[in-house]
């Protein structure tokens, strides 16, 4: 009694959304990993009960199968009575597990993020199935003959098939809604990609490779849209299901959900391929654009580039080959080589210009370097923000985020 297909596809889509969000400099896509599986208190409670009933169902099934083997071997009154008890327990535990599964599904479809997505009242359908299962429980409790147990089992099996098909149908609709939203976000990204390319062009940069990547991304997205349209066409007919989301024909419904499942898998695969191409674009775009990297912790940082660097903490910093400006807090110990100027600013900071190299050290100091060909090494505990374009490398315990290229 498992339904994993839609969850695996949904997990893939969430991964795709995460890749899309990495292009945060261009697109602001929402990417909460728990977007669909958001654990509300109600969901956690129903999920915990589901797991508990599942364990009890599996145990009751084992006991039933054991009793059935013993009856076939012995065929005496004792083994027959034991089989009746275990059969009844097995069916009751199956009903409990089915109801808990429905409650989990109800919790999901009633999640605020999913409200209004289903074009029918799924909660009403779920409640109706729970009522059917409770009626069936009464029959099982009263059953005492093999024929009565068989009838109860047949009814439960048929009901579970319908529940499983409707569950897959509901989740497919929700997933389709997510895919549509993702494609809309991707369209926005495509427009912003074009804008960024034009911006780089206006700066006189060669954008040939970026344009090729953008074209490839757009082509993959077109394939994904075409695939998604096929899925949407399937939902128009919803073969085997009524307009209220209830199974009307088991065989037709099974065929329908398989077709939708395959179509959605194909769409998600194409979206993942497009997102990988987008990630490649981002990497090259960052090389052509200015970036920023933030480093925090204890150890050694070495960086080379053009732009601006701000370092704070208990550190020793050495600079060389600078064509620019150095500002330090008043409590810093500074040694410079070469000719240049020194100026005490109104805020107490000291400004240096026109020097060849420098060494700055101290506790709780602040250092700001701006210019071209910044070449620095910082050792100690603190933070560094590198804005512009260049490379860096770290040693020991640093956490890093940003867009400069990390040296291997």
Question: Short description, anyone?
Answer:
With 408 residues, the chain is α+β, with helices and mostly antiparallel strands.
Account of the 3D structure:
This protein is elongated. It is built from seven helices and seven strands. The two termini are 49 Å apart. It has helices at 5-21, 41-74, 77-109, 122-142, 146-202, 208-237, 250-288; strands spanning 291-320, 323-328, 333-337, 341-344, 350-353, 357-402, 405-406. With 408 residues, it is α+β, with helices and mostly antiparallel strands.
In total, how many beta strands?
7
Spans with pLDDT under 50 lasting ≥5 residues?
A: 1-40, 398-408
State the major sheet.
7 strands, mixed
Tell me roughly what share of residues is in helical segments: 55-70%
N-C termini distance: 49 Å
Helix- and strand-based class? alpha+beta
Average pLDDT for all residues: 82
Instruction: Count up the helices.
Output: 7
Gross morphology: elongated
List the secondary-structure elements in sequence, H or E: HHHHHHHEEEEEEE
* Number of domains as seen in the coordinates: 2
Rg is 32 Å
Strand content: 15-25%
